[in-house]
Design a protein that fits this description.
- The complex is a heterodimer of chains A (88) and B (319).
- Chain A is α+β, with helices and mostly antiparallel strands.
- Helices cover 34% and strands 27% of the residues of chain A.
- In chain A, strand 2 and strand 3 form a beta hairpin.
- In chain A, helix 1 runs antiparallel to helix 3.
- By secondary structure, chain B is α/β, with parallel strands linked by helices.
- Chain B folds into 2 domains: 129 residues, HprK N-terminal domain-like (Udp-n-acetylmuramoylalanyl-d-glutamate--2,6- Diaminopimelate Ligase, Chain: A, domain 1); 161 residues, 3-Layer(aba) Sandwich (Rossmann fold), CATH 3.40.50.
- An 8-stranded mixed β-sheet of chain B has the order 12-9-8-6-7-13-15-14. Chain B has a 5-stranded mixed β-sheet with strand order 1-5-4-3-2.
- The longest helix of chain B has 18 residues.
- Chain B is elongated.
- At the A-B interface, strand 3 and helix 2 of A face strand 8 and strand 10 of B.
């Protein structure tokens, strides 16, 4: 199973350390493989350094995709997190 | 792969090629991505006939001198030969005087004709490397790239298997980190891969239990490097007792990235096994193999000899 969704980074800091940490903490709860793509790059959604490596700032549009049994709830949880502005 | 046209040569490669357009400016759309670059040479004399269409044809001192020694009407034949091959463009080097007939024919046929102050050898060199640089295939991969004893080792495996920890151990033994997690890969000269990390983050690592650490700050500037040719792949995986791992090392596994075939090692991870040591030994073994010494096969052959001689003379000992 594969699911993907496009989201916009709306929080002030963009993909900074704390948002990346929150993202990974949510991602590792799922068994699906998770990728986050931006600007032709795609990072492992379960790796903090990968997400930071995207150098994505406020306003950037990211594509979150998940492959695996729990792909759908994973994409929902992660897009919810991004859309909430990482609870900032 | 990005497509390049004659216009890119004229406009984007201005600094390295210094082309000036003499004719055919309205016809710069032709593709040069896989175009052959050729010196006109014997094309002019009508001897060579297998030029590829859309080639980039270069005229240097020899070709122009040949032209100049021809009289009047004789000159139209070599020009026709050139045009017949439908080159994507024609370049005259060294600011040599461009024969008027060539200019008028190119104007008439709308074939791009350029002149450059560069020497022929310099132009050919720059042209090839500029096209190569601008048509490189690239991609990003997850993994850690480490320079181990000069061998670029790309460590891959599922998240949480401990790639960063293995890399950290290699670094603390004096090997050099190139990129952690997000490795950008570029194919160069059609047959080798260069890997590099992302700006800012590539020389930092996230170690569970420690957080984000800066490798050059902790280990000094020699612990990192910006890019490295990728020469082998190591796949880490959880030890699966049911799976047969390579125990002899006689046959080699491979994996292709961007159609470049690289030797692949699959290393099972289990507590008490130092994966860093195994990778280091694998790099040493790779260096030996590059010098033509294949330890596993050599041992295999030596064993062969000893066993077959013992089969003939059972009492003989091993020398």
């Amino acid at each position: 199973m594969r699911h993907e969704i496009e989201v916009e980074l709306i929080n002030e800091q963009g993909m900074h350390t704390r948002p990346a940490k929150l993202f990974v903490e949510t991602a590792v709860k799922f068994t699906a493989e998770i990728e986050v793509s931006y600007d032709g790059l795609s990072a492992n959604g379960k790796s903090i350094m990968g997400l930071l490596g995207l150098l994505a700032y406020r306003g950037c549009r990211l594509v979150i995709s998940a492959t695996g049994e729990d792909a759908k709830p994973a994409v929902e949880a992660l897009s919810g997190l991004v859309n909430s502005g990482f609870n900032e | 792969m990005s497509r390049l046209t004659v216009r890119n040569l004229l406009e984007d490669a201005k600094l390295v090629l210094q082309l000036k357009c003499l004719a055919g400016a309205q016809n710069l759309w032709k593709d040069i991505t896989e175009a052959h670059i050729m010196k006109a040479g014997l094309l002019l004399a009508g001897v060579e006939r297998d030029a590829q269409p859309n080639a980039i044809i270069v005229l240097g001192q020899k070709e122009i001198s040949y032209f100049e020694q021809l009289k009047g009407r004789q000159r139209s034949e070599p020009v026709r030969q050139l045009i017949d091959f439908q080159p994507s463009c024609i370049i005259v080097t060294k600011n040599l005087p461009v024969p008027r007939l060539l200019v008028t024919t190119c104007l008439d046929q709308k074939i791009p004709l350029f002149s450059t102050p560069l020497l022929t050898s310099r132009l050919l060199d720059n042209l090839e490397s500029w096209i190569d640089e601008n048509t490189r295939e690239s991609m990003t991969l997850h993994g850690v790239l480490v320079d181990v004893l000069g061998i670029g080792v790309l460590i891959q495996g599922p998240s949480g298997i401990g790639k960063s920890e293995v890399a950290l151990e290699l670094i603390s033994r004096g090997h050099r980190l190139v990129a952690d997690d997000l490795v950008e890969i570029q194919k160069q000269h059609g047959n080798h891969l260069m890997g590099q990390g992302r700006p800012l983050v590539s020389h930092h690592m996230e170690i569970r239990g420690l957080g984000i650490v800066s490798i050059p700050a902790l280990f000094g500037p020699t612990a990192v490097r910006d890019s490295k040719r990728i020469e082998s792949i190591v796949d880490l995986e959880d030890w699966d007792p049911k799976k047969e791992y390579d125990r002899l090392g006689i046959d080699e596994q491979h994996r292709s990235i961007l159609d470049v075939r690289l030797p692949l090692l699959t290393i099972p991870v289990r507590p008490g096994r130092s994966v860093a040591t195994i990778i280091e030994v694998a790099a040493r073994d790779r260096l030996l193999k590059e010098r033509g010494i294949h330890s596993a096969r050599l041992f295999h052959d030596q064993l062969d000899k000893v066993l077959s001689s013992r089969a003939v003379h059972p009492a003989k000992g091993i020398e």
